Amino acid sequence: MQKNMYFDYFGDDCFGAVTEGGRLVEFHLDTNSSTEISGNIYKGRVVNVLSGMQAAFVAFGQEKNGYLYAGDIPAGAYIEPQQPLSLQVKAGDEVMVQVAKSPIGTKGARLSMCLSFVGKNLIYLPKADFCAVSRKITDEEVRDRMLKTAQKLAGGDGGIVMRTNAVGAKPADLKEEIKYLRGLYATALEAYATASVGDMVFRDADVHARLLRDVDLSSVDKIYIGDEKTYRRTEAALRRTRVKNKLVLYDGKREMFEAFGLEEQVYKLMSSRVPLDNGAYLIFDRTEALTAIDVNTGRFTGETALEDTVFETNLLAAREIAWQVRLRNIGGIVIVDFIDMAGEDHRNAVVEELTRCLKEDRAKCNVSPMTELGLVQFTRKKVKSDTVAMLTKRCPVCKGSGYLLSESYMAFRVKIAVQKCIAEGYENVIVELNAGLYGYIIAKRRFTEDIRGKWAGKRIYMIPHKTFHDEYFTVKGDNNPVLTLPDTAKLLY
After folding, report:
1. Would 41-202 and 407-491 be classified into the same CATH topology?
2. What's the farthest any 2 CA atoms get from each other in the chain?
3. What is the reported pTM?
4. Which residues make beta-bridge pairs with 55?
5. Do residues 67 and 61 lie in contact, with contact meaning Cβ atoms separated by under 8 Å?
6. What is the dihedral of CA 317, 323, 326, 330, to 10 degrees?
7. What residues does each domain of the chain span?
8. Please, which residues bridge with residue 366 across strands?
9. CATH code for 407-491?
10. Helix, strand or coil, per DSSP, at residue 341
11. Is 429 exposed, middle or buried (0-12, 13-18, 19+ CB in 10 A)?
12. Does 41-202 carry CATH code 2.60.120.380?
């Protein structure tokens, strides 16, 4: 299956994508307006310490303070290791913190004083005193060899984690990389010494550098780049590798993402409904606490027994879910409501299929057994913001609920506002509202009784607007005997 990477730019925004067989499997976006700050290091100040929660809130230049758990403070960083947090840090302390998780919804960023600098083969931990090997490397002999290499590279100066890419890396390249990562830490320390609270002293790699670093480039067939400057920079970085021959500078007349069919696939991520090949579908429901996924048979009825139909649908759903959580970069807790199955062997097979498919994900996932209710819980390591959150903004009308108020209730809200104006002594009331809502009020004659009762003798003018949002309207009173109104104004009844 052909695997390609794509990088394109729109102003200061960088778009990165990975496809397998033409199907989008990863999409990333870096933008100046984004809240995506994971990996960045700041100079912060402890605002307050919550001893009962063993956590502290830290101001670090963002809109919301970040939170720092006691477990994210290196042992021995302050007075007494293993002491309560209140004895390790106190309000007013200046601290060097790294964003472990970007802010999500109403939650501030999670911070850590256990700094890490990520390379293609290694992760350098300047505050640690241990070495480790990626869990994805399962061969014990290989793990032992790599652990000894890591310990030798560390030399008592911080800790090192050997990444999966390190298996085939040359010793000289590993030495060069750890030297480079230590240089990044030294530069961050220098910046921290003269920085003010809230200043960023280290910026993590952008989308372009991050994907080139984290994706196994030996498995990639082509790397398309839509910006000549970035192409030259990438070409220089990969000059000594075979990967340079995979670089392609895209100079087509159409936008690169549109030309390769990527934009259409990205746009589909906005939908909470994901169709399956057999006519069944998935529903994704995102909350701050977790993501719920519901599996529905839809129009798929199968050709055999009900149990077989359900089992086939659940297997297909398991494969699609693994693909979608990777593509949408969904992290944290995920709850899947599979269609009920009577057979225990079928339930186990679905969980095994989901687990197998999630192993292809670069992010760590842990799957729990299926409950009697047909629910499967799994976790996916969350660091970056999910894709949908990066591409959308909070609706100022529905406040992120995803729902609009009914026409009936909106008419009731208009009534309340009109009644308030009349109670304040106004003879004329002017209402500007959505044209659809106006049509509903007239067709249903919702204010007939009010005109005959409390509003008798008053003049209620309505001005419909096609451009008004469904839930937006204005109501104002006016006692002038002569009114200047647009031609679209309608006297109610």
Report:
1. no
2. 93
3. 0.79
4. 50, 69
5. no
6. -20
7. 3-34+205-264, 41-202, 270-386, 407-491
8. 379
9. 3.40.1260.20
10. coil
11. buried
12. no
- The burial of 320, by beta-carbon neighbours within 10 Å (0-12 exposed, 13-18 middle, 19 or more buried), is given as buried
DSSP 399: T
> From first to last of its 493 residues, what are the pLDDT tens digits of the chain?
899 999 998 877 889 999 999 999 999 988 765 667 889 999 999 999 988 888 999 999 998 999 999 888 886 544 444 556 555 788 999 999 999 988 877 788 999 999 999 999 999 999 998 999 998 898 999 999 999 999 999 998 999 999 998 998 899 999 999 999 999 999 999 999 999 999 999 999 888 888 999 898 889 999 999 989 999 989 988 887 778 889 999 999 888 999 999 999 999 998 999 999 888 999 999 888 899 999 998 776 656 667 888 899 999 999 999 999 999 999 999 999 999 998 899 999 999 999 999 998 988 899 999 998 889 999 998 877 788 888 887 777 777 777 788 999 999 999 999 999 999 999 999 999 999 999 999 999 999 999 999 899 999 999 999 999 999 999 999 999 899 999 999 998 7
Domain at 3-34+205-264, CATH from 3.30.420.60, 1.10.630.10, 3.30.565.10, 3.90.70.10: 3.30.420.60
Query: CA geometry: angle at 410 spanning 434 and 421, to 5°?
Result: 90
> What's the CA gap between 291 and 284, in Å, rounded?
7
Q: Count Cβ neighbours within 10 Å for each residue of 257-293 and write b for 16 or more, e otherwise.
A: beebebbebbeebeeeebebebebbbebebeeeebbb
